[in-house]
Amino acid sequence: MTWQIALPMYNVSPRIEGAYEALLLALAGEAGVHAELARPHDLPSFWRSPELLLSQTCGYPYMTQLRGDVALLATPCFDFSGCEGSDYRSAIVVREGGGIRSLADARGRVAAVNERHSHSGMNALRHAVAPHTRDGRFFASVKWSGSHAASLRLVREGAAAIAAIDSATFGYLALEQPDSLRGLSILQYSAPSPGLPLIAGRAVPDELAAQLRSALLAPSPAVRQLMSALHIDRFEHRTDADYERVLLLEAQARAAGYPVLT
Question: Would you say residue 1 has pLDDT above 80?
Fold first, then answer.
């Protein structure tokens, strides 16, 4: 079998994409297996592929769709603002001069959200605004943008008023595409939750998954150098019980009468 590998979640520039691909190849090499880089267009299908060796997912689809189909390996600890250990928050972003000084000010405005199954873009924002809703509504409408970068563009151009952005994505964009953040400010951060975990595919033998986890938790000098280039201090192993916090934020929004971001 030729294994497939991909870390597509933070590829905001060719440099970052290349660094993540180098990290993947190094990890596969240290585990003693041959793997090919993939650039999947359908991530849910890719995550369930029997050829999947190593990839990264978001905590919300992991808990709601993938748990039991993939194995948690380790979660990165970024050195960006909004990240603490392997926890991260969403930066809730507004346009400077847009008249929004608190979350309550965003009532009746348009939100830009990357994906319906994104924790950082959807679930964290739903939880943040839930206490301010009226009759199960808060925003005038939601624009589904397809990516955090696209959400930021909608806010910057005035087509939306607010968006929640993964703090690691925000950090990478500040380094790689600073113009994409011009005229924007962080209103506040969301509640924390475990970050985006690296996962092994369902067909990966337990021994091989353990080797991959070990290569992340106790990195070689070569892997550590690649991590440093990606602003990753270290990796931590997080369990399903840790990721229950993602569902807790969803449950708290539902208890507040706000089951759907709208």
Answer: no
Structural domain containing residue 15: 3-79+194-246
Q: What angle do CA 119, 121, 67 make, to 5 degrees?
A: 20
The torsion region of residue 128 among left (phi > 0), alpha (psi -120 to 50) and beta comes to: alpha
d(CA 20, CA 131) in angstroms, rounded, equals 38
Is 258 contained in some domain? Answer: no
Cα separation, 11 vs 249, in Å, equals: 27
Rounded to two decimals, the pTM is 0.95
**What is the per-residue pLDDT across 155-183, written as a single tens digit (0 to 9) for each?**
999 999 999 999 999 999 999 999 999 99
Q: Write the CATH number for 212.
A: 3.40.190.10
Q: Cα separation of 234 and 35, whole Å? A: 23
CB environment 112-123: b (16+ within 10 A), e (fewer): bbbbebbbbbbb
| Residue at 262 is within a domain | no
